[in-house]
Amino acid sequence: MTEIDQMMAELGRNAKDAAASLAHASAAARTHALEAAADAVWARRAEIMAANEKDLAFGRDKGLSAAMMDRLTLDEARIAGICDGLRAVAAQADAVGQVIEEWDRPSGLHIRRVRTPLGVVGVIYESRPNVTADAGALCLKSGNAVILRGGSESFHSSGAIHAGLVEGLRAAGLPEHAIQLVPTRDRAAVQEMLTMVDTIDVIVPRGGKGLVGLVQREARVPVFAHLEGIVHIYVDKAADPDKARRVVINAKTRRTGICGAAECLLVHREAQALGQEIVDDLKAAGVEVHAQGLDGSVPATEADWGMEYLDMKIAAKVVDNIDDAITHIRRYGSSHTDAILTEDDAAAAHFFSRLDSAILMRNASTQFADGGEFGMGAEIGIATGKMHARGPVGAMQLTSFKYLVEGDGTVRG
Predict the structure, then answer these.
(1) Taking the domain 231-368, which CATH number applies?
(2) Strands, DSSP E only, in 28-119?
(3) pTM of the prediction?
(4) Which CATH class is domain 3-224?
(5) In this predicted model, what pLDDT tens digit does every residue of 323-349 receive, in sequence order?
């Protein structure tokens, strides 16, 4: 057994032991741990920003894109946001032990379906160090132990944030191994996590196509994942021009490096003049528009459809009608988030019923595709599969359930 194998096996054993303790820990203790962690992270903000400077230097040396560097950067405002997220998760209603459903049977049995933690969650993520806090908080809130494997770019930042989370666990008297961070950049640790079926119950990859594709191909542990955020916005013929212009600019330019950023604009032929105004707005904001049927920056090619730019670029296309837009999204989309801009209720209902993306929106920026914005406090990722969890994965989605069955000397005839 290699040194990495031994290290990961120990993390797994520790996590499993911690999960057993967390399963019966009180909701008050978990809440206290998260509130104390928020205080600790804020108190350590200078240390966290100093660690982040090391990561930014590493990122510059690696030649990371501006969007990736933005995802990596922590300043005081973003650290305050991390602390707010920890407190928001702490304030949520507790899911563990919640009775989902209960009923009586003619046999005399009383049956309850009750929420229970998944056990041990493994989270593999890339450059965003805030995921360390988000994932740790959501797993703890839902009674799960977690093994965090951050990206090499965020190694120092994640370590400094993790120290604050451990301080919170300690303050609440919860096992410190409830939130563990893999202490190496060695990629062999990722490969090992994917096969730890005896100690990890589910893997959540959060990052780019390369990482998520690797996890989905090679994991023996069940996976909650989305491969890409190929997000479409369809401007219907009944779109309100002011709303449409405002929403599209925000959806593309607010933060280009997140998975909810718009990547393709579809415009109804009868709204082509409005579509051109939107394209002109995007170009004026510095966006490179790869267009078909509109005067963009460059002509669109087949390669632009289904492209996740994560940059100041967007594909744009005129379609004949709403069904052509739906057909395009079904062919090139990733079942993440898609939006319609329209004042026509029937058109919106048609769009919502014909598409099966994890998140569908009307007259709202796709940048809202985020667990925090959904009221979950934070998210561990956006799942685009159809099993168990879909859309933003918050604390509630990190639970399963068990049946509690009670009788009174009841026997089966």
Answers:
(1) 3.40.309.10
(2) 99-104, 110-117
(3) 0.82
(4) alpha beta
(5) 999 999 999 999 999 999 999 999 999
